[in-house]
Amino acid sequence: MKYKRRIILYILIPAVIIASSLCTYYYLVDNNSYVKEWHNLPFDVKVSSVVLAVESIDNMLIAPEIDTSITNKITGERLMNSIRSGADWIVSMQEEGGRFNYWYDPEKDIYSNRSDDNFLRQAGTAYSLMLVYEVTGDTIYMNSAKKNINHLFRYRKYIDENRTYFEFKGKAKLGGIALPMLTMVKIKALAGDMSFNDDLEKLADMIIYLQQYYGNGKFKSTYVYLGDYEHEKNSGWESSIYPGEAMLAIALMYKSFGEEKYKQCFDKAYDYYSADGNWRMSGFRPWAISACSEMYHVTNDRKYSDFAFRMCGYGLTWQNLNPDYIVYGSIYALPDVFTATTFEGIGDAIAVACKTGDTDLADLYMERSLIAYNWLMKLQYSDNDTIPEQATGGFRCSLYDPVIRIDNTQHAISAMTKGYKYIFSKNRYMP
How far is residue 93's CA from residue 79's CA, in Å, rounded to a whole number? Predict the structure, then answer.
């Protein structure tokens, strides 16, 4: 029965995928950078992506056993070496003023221009260094994160004495408010540094202010966008990523400060986004899983853990589980380093599953995370690669794209720190 079903899948589904892909391609190629990227891929990669798409559907029907020869290769020591190497690469990309150079191409041996920058990826990179500090205790990573925060504060602006935000290149985004908060609240929690308390409260009040705009728990994605205060309304655009980042920032604020207004803000967001189909968006899920994990640890309310598990289950349906493929453990039909984002959230869900007693889920999350780490390590440059020394430790975007970006490496080491903390650490069940 299993093989008959596979025959049907391999005959019918590819035809549907190819037909729909061609229609999508001809409709979007002039306007969509991802479709253009697809157009530039080698033919064999396009074919393999169709095969992976078919097998991911097969995996939804028949979950294959995990290859333990792969999971057994990922030890705590190996994971820590990868984490440190990636974090060291990030630190090596930092300028004296605290800014991280955005990307490096080891094949061409060139760095990005200063004009090619992204505020959110700067902030997210600093946060990843705090996660590395958490599992290593090495102050070089916290000091680097602090330097970056000082750089980001150059872009701070105020609405009034109670609300502040960051504006970069004429854009003040919800994610640009939330991400620096994650670093600051981690500094407070791990180093006992209270110097950011006032800034954190003002930024959190700004997130609450943006939630009040719609009145239904939904967050406004921007405060101002190139002078346009009604950007979402005028453009029809909304971010799927920023609400998850905002939820995590608010969850950490509630954990750190204990003020009821943060729980109220979080619960309004939970009510809206858990009922809205957009929770399935790949950009929202990892941050929201981490946010709900934090809220569960603080409150022991199973509604948060249940929502986190629901999101984890959906994300794992897209994992490539054929050990015969080099991309085993990756996510989606065109696997790249952003597989890591899925496992940032799932890493936090490991501790929640252990705490709730859902041992089968905990084992599933651990196994799936280990094969994902194995995939990510294939993208990390090492001393053995024939590339410039300054690439060592960085994660390339994919097997076909050699460029290392700070956010590529940020997501990879962030995911791995969760694995080290909750799979290999003696205190792995403690958030």
Answer: 22
| CATH (one of 3.20.20.70, 1.50.10.20, 3.40.50.720, 1.10.3720.10) for 73-424 | 1.50.10.20
Q: Closest Cα to residue 380, out of 88, 46, 73?
A: 88
CB 248 within 8 A of CB 296: no
Phi/psi at 401 (nearest 5 deg)? -130, 110
CA distance 52 to 42: 16
Please state the domain extents for the chain: 1-65, 73-424
Helices and strands (H and E) in the chain: how many: 17, 8
249: amino acid identity, one letter: A
**How many residues are given for the chain?**
431
Task: Give tens-digit pLDDT for 158-198.
Answer: 999 999 999 999 999 999 999 999 999 999 999 999 999 99
CA distance 310 to 288: 11
pTM of full prediction above 0.85: yes
CA distance 394 to 381: 6
d(CA 341, CA 412): 7
